[in-house]
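Field reference: "sequence" (input) and "structure" (output). Example, GNAT family N-acetyltransferase:
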Amino acid sequence: MTTFRLLEAHELADAARLSNSVFRPNSQPTMGDMFPRLFAPGIVQSYGAFAEKGNLAAFMGLSPSTLRIGGASSLRAFSIGSVFTSPEYRGAGLAGELLNLCIAHTQKAEAPLLFISGDRSLYTRAGSAYFGRVTKALLHRPTAASSSSSSSHMQSSIRLRLAEPQDLLSLHSLHQSGSTRFEESAAGVGELLGAAAYSNVLGLAQLTVIAENEHGLIAYAIVGVPRDVQSSLLSGSAVPSPKTSPEKGNPATVISYGGEAQHTAYLIHALLDFCPLEELHVDIPWQDQDLEKLLEQKGAELQSVRNSGTLFVTDVRLLLEQAYDLWPLPWEEALRVDPDGRVFATSSNRELSRAEWYGTLFDPHYPRLGDIPSWFEPIPLPNPYGLHYI
């Protein structure tokens, strides 16, 4: 008989070992290193399926977070990750039962959002769906002519360097100044920087580069780069010339950033010379429109696409209640939610399909009918495929 339950702290090491055998066999760093919030001892949130002899047959990692959106509202959320079933137990529906437990856990914690780094039918059958949009920016190494056109004042007043441990508190302050973000302590930011989860998933080495002026740190960028670039910059040796034909693998990618838009745009663009890189990819959440415009002015190619992964809304009424500060009028004047969780346009009493209310709540490009008022803007969410990737 299979038993489904929360793991105990002493069982996490075995879960990390099995996860590593599935996702990163013979690779460093390990899953335990990359995802300390799933596998480090503490208040365990993750669930396992245990076979008759007590051995772990399947695992579903669950990590809590708090989101600050629009500068005021606070949303509770969880993220699912490191989901696996040992080969000898596959096909028995263990992951589906674990997902049900994680959803129930999330609901009991009064968290209306469950982020999932995948779109398998396991998740979409349960009700998870694509959500919102992100702008993918591609920057190319500037030519000498385009570089000289940059503001000489900006270049002379801002200096780039690799971050040092003493910069963590200032970097955390910039992180906290973002109007839409994952809430985090300074120690928590340091933990995630050390884990470098998403950089390692991409097969890239991670650097934290800061921009500072006479007043101190004004912007930061966490960037995944080829390993020879990281090694050269950290050792102070000559940085290899950027490759015109990138090697097989993922391109250099900005994982996270912080600071005022003009400073952040300058820093991201300057990374092409600082590292140096032939090209650089950045995912910009739709609400960071000032940064998007500034990077476009610097020659970035922009493409709007849907967010990666899927999102399960465990309780749409609770979501609207926690996000109430976003809107100038009570959300009930735009939408109505019945006791069964069905969503209606208040003015017309028209029922919205799941796809329609997901689009209305999260996607600024989603077409609206006239019974959804214009002041009811989408909920801005931070990028889950970044520093806080699970």
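The radius of gyration is 22 Å.
The first helix runs from residue 12 to 23.
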